[in-house]
Amino acid sequence: MSETPSLTRVWFMDWHGRVLSHDPIRDDFSPAPFQPGIYPGLSALVAFPLTFPCEVTLEKRVSMPRLLPELEMQETPQGFVCLVTKKYNTYLISAPGRGGILTNSTNLGEWEQLLIMQQDFMRGLSTLMVPDKATLIDTQNDQPLSPLQLNSGFVGEVNGKRLSLKRNLQAIEHLGRIPAGQTADLTFHEENEKSPMTVRIQRPG
Fold it and tell me: What is the mean pLDDT of the chain?
């Protein structure tokens, strides 16, 4: 029997470590920093398990009248996703700095790629970034780890260790499901290192 798809709310992170959001004043796309514990201004309900390509309708957290373009979500060769306008067959692009988010790119590059984030992932990532949310211990040396910092290229960094968000997606989602007062050992994979890193997560009660 085939698995029945279920609708799941997702958010999107761009290549620069920002989230795809919405500016209610301009009623338009807007990149925003990832803020632990705060959901971005744009989300979408998509069917899981994912099949590509698929239609995706972005929803504004603050309801405004302007219609957003009809979009199709496609998988990229690197395993991320991109959003393509159905009318013009162009890519949504999130440019650095004040470049903003546009929908007129004709080439698929780094700035057109997005990371899908489910609720558990966002909770786990928030926990890694906020010191009072959890204590992080490297079990190899029993040393505490610093809060995670987001870098470009869908990478987080702790104590100089670079962690691919996509490669460690399941561990981050698992972290997002750990209740307060609990401790768990999670395996993370560092870039350019064959041996995994075990991190003890201690959530305060």
Answer: 94
Packing angle, helices 169-176 and 119-129, rounded to 10: 90
User: Strand 42-48 relative to strand 6-14: parallel, antiparallel, unpaired?
Assistant: antiparallel
- In this prediction the pTM is 0.94
Tell me what pLDDT residue 6 has: 85
* Structure confidence at residue 190 as a pLDDT band (50, 70, 90): very high
Answer whether the bond into residue 49 is a cis peptide, omega within 30°.
Answer: yes
Buried b / exposed e across 115-131, counting CB within 10 Å, b at 16+?
bbbbbbbbbbbbbbbee
Place of tokens 């992170």: 13
The torsion angle over the Cα atoms of residues 34, 40, 45 and 50, rounded to 10 degrees, is -10
